[in-house]
């Protein structure tokens, strides 16, 4: 499974960064960067929570 971002929807609120800083970051221009696209099986539920908490629904798991 992979985590995806719709960068047209993303407002760089950084909620995902706060919830999983080893997976998400903001670059110097405050744009979202996905550091780890592959979701390990043992973190799937955690990443589902991160996706659910995105205020713009810009994140998904495929």
Radius of gyration: 10 Å
Determine the fraction of residues in helical runs and give it as a percent range.
Answer: 10-25%
Strand order, biggest sheet? Answer: 1-4
Number of helices: 2
Protein name: Ferredoxin FdxD
InterPro entries: Fe-S_cluster_ET (IPR051269)
Cofactor: [3Fe-4S] cluster
Keywords: 3Fe-4S, Electron transport, Iron, Iron-sulfur, Metal-binding, Transport
Summary of the model, kept short:
This protein has 62 residues and is of the alpha+beta class. It has helices at 15-19, 44-52, and strands at 3-5, 24-26, 32-34, 59-61. The strands form two sheets. The protein has a two-stranded antiparallel sheet with strand order 1-4. A two-stranded antiparallel sheet has the order 2-3.
What does this structure look like?
By secondary structure, the chain is α+β, with helices and mostly antiparallel strands. It contains two helices and four strands, in the order E-H-E-E-H-E. Strands 1-4 form a two-stranded antiparallel sheet. A two-stranded antiparallel sheet has the order 2-3. A hairpin with a 5-residue loop joins strand 2 and strand 3 (32-34). This is Ferredoxin FdxD.
Structural features:
62 residues, alpha+beta, two-stranded antiparallel sheet, two-stranded antiparallel ribbon, iron, transport, Fe-S_cluster_ET
Topology:
Layout: E1 3-5, H1 15-19, E2 24-26, E3 32-34, H2 44-52, E4 59-61
Antiparallel strand pairs: 1-4, 2-3
Cofactor: [3Fe-4S] cluster
Keywords: 3Fe-4S, Electron transport, Iron, Iron-sulfur, Metal-binding, Transport
Organism: Williamsia phyllosphaerae
């Amino acid at each position: 499974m992979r985590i995806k971002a719709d960068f047209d929807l993303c407002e760089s609120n950084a909620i995902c960064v706060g919830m999983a800083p080893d997976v998400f970051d903001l670059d110097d221009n405050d744009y979202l960067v996905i550091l780890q696209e592959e979701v390990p099986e043992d973190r799937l539920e955690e990443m589902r929570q991160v996706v659910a908490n995105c205020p713009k629904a810009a994140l998904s798991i495929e």
